[in-house]
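re the bet — no i am not wrong, look at it urself. input seq straight from the record:
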Amino acid sequence: MTFKMIYDDRNRNNLNKLADHTKIAAYKWYQYCIDNQIQILIYETIRTKEKQAENVAKGASKTMMSYHLVGQALDFVPVNSKGEATWSINSYIRKDVMSAINYAKSLGFTWGGDWDNDGEWRDETFLDSPHLQYNYKGYATDSFNKVKVNGDELTLSQYKELLSKINELNNEIVLLKSNVNNKADLYSTSSVGESHTESSKWAIENELTNGDNPTAALTRQQAFTMFKRFYDKFIK
């Protein structure tokens, strides 16, 4: 049976709200969850200052400099086959979910269940199991709407950069072809050099060569043929 993420539409809608580079990394992580059939609900990404103030007031958050405010964090919860959220820490340290969390870490995320990244959740004084934040180059360093996730969409600046690269490559190709053609002309002219006219005529008359491309490079197999013809005509 083909795996179907129960909350796929909601998950993608929330992922699309993230900052550019965070979004790219988050989608890689989300695809890992799909590929490994790990059911999750991404229930929050971007957050308003008012919402963050409420969370701090009730102890759900510790700072007003939340990575959610700048689009560099997401909150998720594992769900069962019925689509029910399973909030306990045991759900997060389950083998398949932990594999997803470890993959997120490899992409540059910090997990709220292991702030010091020592692989142990029990030593955390503030456990925020749903939380994954993407540090990128630091707090509020990511951008919005300057990078497209989908490969079929480019910003104007990206398009101009790509077009410039294509033009550079085309110019290099034209130059390369010109150099090749010049070398081909140099080594494959049909004109026999003045000092080689007599010997070339003799070789043609004696059927050692047909006279084509007299200044082209001589391959080994052509040399073998000429030696054989010479042997057959003058020595044998």
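see?? The radius of gyration is 35 Å. told u. also The longest strand covers residues 73-78. so pay up
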